[in-house]
Design goal:
Blueprint: H1 2-5, E1 21-22, E2 32-33, H2 47-56, H3 72-75, E3 91-93, E4 107-114, E5 118-123, E6 126-132, E7 139-144, E8 149-155, E9 161-168, E10 175-182, E11 193-194, E12 200-208, H4 218-221, E13 224-231, E14 234-240, E15 252-254, E16 259-266, E17 268-269, H5 274-283, E18 292-293, E19 305-311, E20 317-321, E21 323-324, H6 331-341
Parallel strand pairs: 11-21, 17-18
Antiparallel strand pairs: 1-2, 3-4, 4-7, 5-6, 5-8, 8-9, 10-12, 12-16, 13-15, 13-19, 14-16, 19-20
Length: 342
């Protein structure tokens, strides 16, 4: 990026690509191209996304016409929907705080992405050091490993702390958390799944330790998670972990760095005018097999879709997906309304 965007005669940089994608893999068993800069093939945030955020969002003035336009809910949210509201300054420790491999160097190299001029690093409250952040660069530290909390602070020109990020030693897997990335106001995708037979929810399953921290180590995080729709008008369509070597899977998939994605599609058509639903029922020979089309004016209440995620040895997690017949909640309409209000 520095080779292109630091030159006045260049208008910018073309990034290939935003997300990992199926095909063009480096060879079996990989099935996807792991060149995404924002997300993996399952849509989970990659490390490089924080670098892009620091220089292409936080580093751009709110009055700059080139700053990306975001709905208010998204502008105040971290990249990961479960994260705390993000400050104007970005600071992110990229590496997991785990012990060095046996027989390896005693120190860990820690990378921190930030748009602040200086980053200070602390381990269990003790200062490790500070590092200047060059334009389009990052902060880097060599740290002797000790179990505990690692904290990065973004320091402004006057010495004030602008933002902090904390990571730490993770314990054994203790629970599964199931949350909704879409539909969600935090991702600009509405507040409910639309019962149109096509709208699809993106669920996130996380394996957590006893403190609620994500278990990213291979020893604990490569656990098989099984999904099931237990009630409501929904159908499990696919699962993926983001692993470039992940194969086509059904209801069960191994977690990758503690994460698994599940896609649940609406299996009922209640949205839209009655005449359109009646026509759809007439021309759809498979209606009733995988999708139930409601005709007439009186549709009744729209029940939520309930999904359960289970891992052997851990308590199951359950999520209720809100469902509506209001087509205004479709992501395309939500995005249009958000842009009109910008």
């Amino acid at each position: 990026m520095a080779h292109s965007d630091s030159r006045d005669f260049n208008v910018g940089t073309f990034v290939w690509s935003g997300f990992d994608y199926l095909g063009e893999s480096r060879g079996w068993p990989q099935t996807s191209k792991a060149r995404g800069t924002v997300g993996d093939v399952a849509g989970f945030t990659k490390e490089s996304a924080w670098w892009l955020r620091s220089w292409w969002l936080s580093n751009i003035s709110a009055s700059d016409a080139g700053r990306p336009v975001l709905p208010a809910a998204m502008a105040n949210a971290a990249l990961e929907p479960q994260g705390a509201p993000a400050a104007a300054t970005t600071v992110r420790i990229i590496d997991a705080w785990t012990a060095p491999k046996q027989g390896g160097a005693p120190n860990r190299t820690i990378h921190v992405y930030s748009d602040a001029p200086v980053v200070k690093l602390y381990l269990n409250g003790a200062a490790v050091g500070s590092a200047a952040v060059d334009f389009f660069g990052h902060a880097e530290f060599s740290v002797a490993y000790a179990a505990g909390a690692l904290v990065a602070k973004a320091i402004g020109a006057g010495g004030a702390t602008l933002a902090t990020h904390t990571t730490g030693t993770v314990g054994a897997a203790a629970s599964v958390r199931l949350t909704l990335d879409a539909p969600s106001p935090l991702t600009g995708t509405g507040s409910a799944l639309v019962a149109d037979g096509a709208d699809t929810a993106m669920l996130r399953a996380e394996i957590l330790d006893g403190t609620g921290a994500l278990v990213t180590s291979a020893a604990d995080a490569f656990s098989e998670i099984t999904f099931a729709v237990t009630s409501g008008g929904g159908r499990l369509m696919a699962t993926h972990s983001g692993d470039p070597a992940e194969q086509e899977r059904g209801a069960s998939v191994n977690a990758y760095h503690g994460l698994v994605r599940a896609f649940v599609r609406s299996s009922e058509v209640r949205a839209g005018p009655a005449a359109r639903r009646a026509l759809l029922a007439a021309v759809t020979p498979t209606a009733g097999h995988h999708t139930r089309i409601f005709t007439g004016e009186q549709l009744g209440a729209v029940d939520p879709i309930v999904v359960t995620a289970t891992v052997a040895g851990l308590p199951p997690a359950t999520l209720s997906i809100p469902v509506t017949a209001d087509e205004a909640q479709l992501p395309v309409h939500v995005a249009h309304a958000a842009c009109e209000s910008c």
